[in-house]
Design brief:
It is built from six helices and eleven strands. By secondary structure, the protein is an alpha/beta fold. The strands form three sheets. It has a seven-stranded mixed beta sheet with strand order 5-2-1-6-7-11-10, with helices on both faces. Strand 1, helix 1 and strand 2 form a beta-alpha-beta unit. Helix 3 crosses helix 4. It is globular, with a radius of gyration of 15 Å.
Length: 188
C-alpha cells in the first residue's frame, strides 16, 4: 500500500502549485489525495509575472477533481501535507476543517510543504509561531504577525516544514520536501 500525502486546496489555487507537487510526488511513489471544501471539479488559475505589472496577473487555469471533501479527511491516514498557493488559501484559512487538518500535521511532526500564499492557512491555524518560512514576498508582514520569521528563499526548511515563495521555486522546493519525506515517510 502506498504512503499517502494530502494536498488541500480549492478554487482559484495556482495551477502549477497544485499539479506540480501532485505529479512529482506520484512519480516518487506516493499516493496523493486532493481535498477541497467539497467533492467537485476545482477551477485553478495561472499567476504570471509580466513586465509592466507591479504584481502577478491572473488567468483561468486547469480544472481538476477533488478526491474528497475536507470533512471526510482523517489526517491520521496521511504521512504529509501539501498546501499550494494562489487565492484559495485566503478563504480556506477560515475553514475549521482546514484548521483541524493542518493542526494535526504540526502536532504530530509530519512533513508539511507550503508555497506562495499557503502560509495564510498555517498562520490562521496558529502553527507558525516560532518557525521560519518562505512565502510570496507580499506576505512577509502576515508571516511576522503570526510570530514566524520570514525568509526570502526558494526552499526554506524548518524541521519538517518546507516552504517556498512561488512556482518558479518548484525545483528547489520539491527537492527539499522529498528529502524530508524520504527520511520521515519513505514511499513504499
Amino acid at each position: 500500500m502506498a504512503v499517502k500525502v494530502l494536498l488541500i486546496t480549492g478554487d482559484a489555487a495556482e495551477s502549477l502549485e497544485v499539479l506540480y507537487p501532485y505529479q512529482r510526488l506520484r512519480e516518487e511513489g506516493y499516493q496523493v489525495d486532493i481535498a477541497a471544501p467539497s467533492r467537485k471539479k476545482l477551477r485553478f488559475v495561472v499567476h504570471d509575472f509580466e513586465d509592466g505589472f507591479d504584481t502577478y496577473t491572473e488567468k483561468p487555469g486547469y480544472t481538476w477533481p477533488a478526491d474528497l471533501a475536507f470533512d471526510e479527511v482523517d489526517p491520521a491516514g496521511y504521512a504529509a501535507l501539501v498546501i499550494p498557493g494562489g487565492r484559495a488559501p485566503e478563504y480556506l484559512r477560515n475553514d475549521p476543517e482546514v484548521q483541524r487538518i493542518t493542526r494535526h500535521f504540526f502536532e504530530t511532526d509530519k512533513p508539511v510543504a507550503q508555497i506562495c500564499h499557503g502560509p495564510q492557512i498555517t498562520a490562521a491555524t496558529g502553527v507558525l509561531q516560532g518557525r521560519t518560512t518562505a512565502a510570496y514576498p507580499a506576505l512577509e508582514p502576515d508571516v511576522r504577525a503570526a510570530g514566524a520569521t520570514y525568509r526570502d528563499g526558494e526552499a526554506v526548511v524548518d524541521g519538517v516544514l518546507v516552504s517556498a515563495r512561488a512556482w518558479p521555486d518548484h525545483p528547489g522546493w520539491l527537492r527539499a520536501f522529498i528529502e524530508v519525506l524520504r527520511t520521515k515517510a519513505p514511499a513504499a
